[in-house]
Amino acid sequence: MSINKTKDIFDDDFEVIYQEDYSDLLRDAADDDDDDYEDVLSTLSELDENRNNKGKNRKKKRRKAPNLVSPAAKTVKTGGKLVYKLVNLLLRTATLILTAVIFYVLAENFWKHHAAYGDVFRAFIEKNYVLAAYTGIALFLLLFEFFSFLVILTGSKKSDHKDRRLDTGKGLFSFIFIYAGAFLSYLLCGLIPSSPAFLQGVQGALNVYGSIHTTLLPLCIAGIISCLIRKFLVR
Predict the structure, then answer these.
(1) Are 149 and 99 in contact, with CB atoms under 8 Å apart?
(2) Residue from 78, 62, 95, 71 nearest 172 by CA
(3) What is the mean pLDDT of residues 123-133?
(4) Which of 131, 157, 170, 176 could bridge to 117 as Cys pair (CB 3.0-4.6 Å)?
């Protein structure tokens, strides 16, 4: 190749680099790349730290924000409990009134028909077994209603997990028993024999008891409903 052609290829700024100088240049370039990489990592770290700080600040703001829903929910819950207690009190009062009315109906009818069997105050002196049997059945039913009234009045128990009393719907059995007994007496009293003598008193008492089964039906149905509501819906 001629000298003129060589001059055409390499211009005036061409610089010859030896092997040692080339290694230094590579090292400097690598150092520059490491510095750029460290700068990028540092920038990312700062961004991540800023993000975490913002998240913490948001949590603090959330914690400091007042909870306006909780007081309102407590107020609604307390109001609901008061309503339930009031309804329960009214239903229990109604149950007690129904029990008292049934007691009165039984007492009135048994007393009205007792004179046919003699003087009740002289029954034991005169050994009037017919009147004694009649009076015995009447007293059994009246005492049953009286104790049912007391059970309804105090018929609540403490909850297993809270220190409060729950209505268990006491009185349900008494209404079922009174009406079922009256209806069966109406159907079966005619089958009772008249001998021995005291069976006449049993027959007479059951005849009176059975004769009022239509009067007792609405009273007992209303009582059963009130007990079921107290037991399962309003406690």
Answers:
(1) yes
(2) 95
(3) 82
(4) 131
Most confident range, picked from 22-31, 73-82, 117-126: 117-126
Task: Give yes or no for residue 189 having a pLDDT over 70.
Answer: yes
Q: Which are the contacts of 205, defined by CB distance < 8 A and separation ≥ 6?
A: 110, 133, 134, 136, 137, 138
Using DSSP's 3-state secondary structure scheme, residue 189 falls into helix
pLDDT at 19: 47
128 φ/ψ angles, rounded to the nearest 5 degrees: -85, 90
* Residue burial 20-54, b: 16+ Cβ < 10 Å; e: rest: eeeeeeeeeeeeeeeeeeeeeeeeeeeeeeeeeee
- CA terminus-to-terminus distance, the chain: 115
Could you list the beta-strand ranges (E) of 95-193. Answer: 156-158, 165-167
- Binned at pLDDT 50, 70 and 90, residue 7 comes out as very low
Backbone angles phi, psi at 165, to 5 degrees: -100, 140
pLDDT digits (tens, 9 = 90+) for 210-226: 999 999 999 999 999 99
d(CA 191, CA 74): 63
